[in-house]
Automatic annotation (TrEMBL):
This is GFA family protein. GO terms for molecular function: carbon-sulfur lyase activity; metal ion binding. It comes from Amphritea opalescens. Belongs to the Gfa family. Residues 4-119 form the CENP-V/GFA domain. The keyword Phosphoprotein does not apply. It comes from the Bacteria. InterPro entries: CENP-V/GFA, Mss4-like_sf. Keywords: Lyase, Metal-binding, Zinc.
Amino acid sequence: MTHYFGSCLCGNAKFEVQGHFDGFYLCHCKYCQKDTGSAHAANLLSKSAKLTWLAGSDSVTTFTLAGTRHKKSFCKVCGSALPSTHDTGLLVIPAGCLDTEVSISPTAHIFTSSKAVWDEGLGDVPEFEGLPE
C-alpha cells in the first residue's frame, strides 16, 4: 500500500494518507480561486484512501459554502489547506500540503469556463529560480 505524508505550513497539523489517488485535478472554479488566491486549486482525489491525523487534528477546521458542495479544510493557526473528507466519502487532498513527492501528473483542468483571464499563455512568462531583484 502506498503511503503519503503531509503537513501544514506551521507544522502543527500532520497527516498520513494510505492508498491510491483516483485523479489529480486542477480546478478553475470561482470557489477554488477564492480558496487559493490563485488561478486554480490542485487537488488529489480518492474514494478509497484512508486519512489519519498524526498530530494537530484539533487545529484543523472545515468551511462548507452554504448551498454548494464546496468544502475546504485548513489549519486554524497558519491557514494552510489540508485534506477533507466529503459526505460522499471522497477524500480531497490539496497537492501542495503533501511532504511526500507525488509522481502522478494532473489528470485534467476542470471548470475551465471560470478560468481566470490572466491564466493564459503562462509558458511565455519569464522564470526565476528565486525572488527577482
